[in-house]
Amino acid sequence: MKNSIAASVLTFTVLIAPACLSTSAIAQELPTPVTSVVLTGDRLSLSLTNQTGSPVEYQAIGDTESRVLPPNSTVTLRDLRIPVSLLFRSQAVSDVGDRTGLITTDVRPNTSTGSLDITFKPTSDPLNLRSTVSVDANGNVYAY
What we know:
Helix content is 13%, strand content 40%. It is globular. It contains two helices and ten strands. 22% of the residues are buried. The protein has helices spanning 4-16, 23-28; strands at residues 35-36, 43-50, 56-60, 67-69, 73-81, 84-90, 103-110, 115-122, 132-135, 140-143. The protein is mainly beta. A six-stranded antiparallel beta sheet has the order 1-10-9-6-3-4, covered by helices on one side. A four-stranded mixed beta sheet has the order 5-2-8-7, with no helix packed on it.
């Protein structure tokens, strides 16, 4: 279970990245930041809220082990190293064709706390599916 979420996302990423793409084509396809956060050092706190109705498994790569956030609850991950990638998935997904348990995110900087608020929400639209939120060294936030 320790590496299950990281392995799942890695497998998903490898399967959707066509091998025929050149480096320049991949660079042109990088996502646009969904928001940005003002960094005051090399650490950032993330506030996670689960509004999906199902447990959400998550892991801040390099900072936390895989953990579970129960439905209708919030947790704050403090002092995560920048850059940071948060991987997550609903524990409600039972198989590849199942559309229950798909997650999207609402990501907003919290200027009063200097943290990033991430809310997990259910979605039935596979085009709105999210499994990763990343923050780069410049404070750009990506959700994919």
